Amino acid sequence: MRSSMKYCRVVELVCKLQLLTICSLPYFVSARSDGAAPQDKTTQPRRSYYALVVADTLLVNDDPFSSLVGIFDFPARFSKAINTDDGSLVDDDRLQNNSLSDNCTDPNDKGSYESSCQLVLAECGKKSELIDYLAFVVCDLPYMEPVAYALMTIWLMYLIALLATTVDNHFVPPLNFLAEKMKLSPSIAGITLLALGNGAPDIFVAFSGIAQDDTALVLGSMSGGGLFVTTVVLGTVVMVANLTLYKIDKLDFMRDLIAYLLVVVIIVAVAYDGIVYLLEACLFPVLYFVYLVFVITVSYIRACIKKRNQPEKKDLLDEIMYYDEESASKSISLSNSVAMKPISTVKETCTEDESLIELPREPEEPKNCYLAGLSWPKKSNFIVKIIWFIQLPFSLLRWITVPPFSHDGRWCVVHYILASFSPLPLSMLVLIAVKGWKGFTIYVNVIPLPVILILAATVFSLFLFCVLRPKRPPHWCVQILLVPVTFASAIVWLNIIANEVVSILRAFGLLLHIDTGILGLTVLAVGNSVADWVANTVVAKSDKPQMAFASCFGAPLMGHVVGLSFAIIVKIVFYQYGEPFKFDIANSAFSAVKLSWVFLVVSLIMTALVFLIFKFSPKKIYGVVLLLFYLLFAVFAVLEETNILPVPF
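The structure corresponding to this sequence follows.
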């Protein structure tokens, strides 16, 4: 107990020192570089505006996830604030947005410029992406455009795959850890943390798309992904699942389907006028909260009914059948005895029933040095090994920036080294995510910003090096400290990758004259949903159709609520000062999006009716119908994009 308290006090002390350093550093570095003392008349404004500048720095950046580094970059902004006549906060970067210039409608049309390359560099300059894809095609490979398009297509597929593996290997484990420590029931964890993990790619794409003012791409990705999951994925589950042997829960199925249908209908109603007010955007989190309360209430009522109807345990066999897995490693309660006996005692006394029951076994010793994405997949097929090899460079980059925290009990010297030294490269990753490559040229007075970040990261790295042990998993206090860092690191990676995905799709749209809405409906939606397609098919084949059906509605529901609504809320509050979010819904880029809304609503209503008519055990032919329904949508989308059959609404 004393050892545990000692660890906790050390962790608390380090956190307080880091917070004090972060809050004090900008005050001291904002002094004049020549060492002159500030005048008396400026001292008071510096102190009075200090809190405002810190808050403004934390809330206003080029990206919703920019507050980690922004606080170090505010001395110049601080000077602007105290030098203005009215003392208001001024930030030139805040006046810029991530949208392209109005003259950048056709990079191939040079207009008044001498070349298309000059037009791209002048009017289509990159804002948030790390690679200028338009300049790559127009300037770097002007006479080899097919090669450039092929390379960009391969890179896009690679980025989408990185989104999926980053979620699986680095974003989901902290969520599972939190669900386990919070002792959430499977139903609650499934619709909250696990659904957040499944919908993470769509969520981060939504944030990046809204930040870059590409609403058509975001809405297309959301509705297209939802349509693909509720037709192709759901249809595949219906075809491979044994619904005659394994019944699905009627209430849970209809609850999830109706909730998703309601959210889609409200999105259509809110977005159809091209104006989204703050209250309208806040409506979706409220609906999700009501949905969550309903799930918790129903689960509690079901548990009470089951407990009331549960028969009394009369013998050893009944006792073990109702055995609580959480206490399996400690003891078993015998109904015919008063004392609590350990498992070993039960095994000795239970000789007659050994053939009838399967007693809990000790968990097998895990492979301590396993690292997802770095460890060689021995038992996997050839395709998985090829994918592993292709993603190996980024797997290494992710592991040196995302500290492991022994969520699965695995821990060895490799984990110790990665966890101890990860703050150093992580600080550079955060700098790139917030400021791009220009972050390495930013100075705080005479000190480069990267140097300041490395010094701060070194302190945290030395702390981890001292409190962690090479051959012993982290203490629970240190583990709780590592989990938020791991989670934040995964978010930074997802934010960078999502920005690149959105940027490359926008470049394709401008270069090939394709609406970004149709690109979101097809390329991005299908790319983000392929992993769910494979996972749900495997789950359905393993005789768990309930879980597969729940995922078909839970993941897109979370993507719509958290991704779309929170991205718009951030845009309205932090970027537009409360002004409503507007977009041109009459633009041709939204035509395919409107078409997808119609098909999505029809598919959900059709699925609800079919499952009700067939008593939640539909024929496998309905899976084929759903696949053909998506194919029909694809045909109409192509006809609409080519103006052969334009959408009349």
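Confidence is low (pLDDT under 50) at residues 1-99, 314-366.
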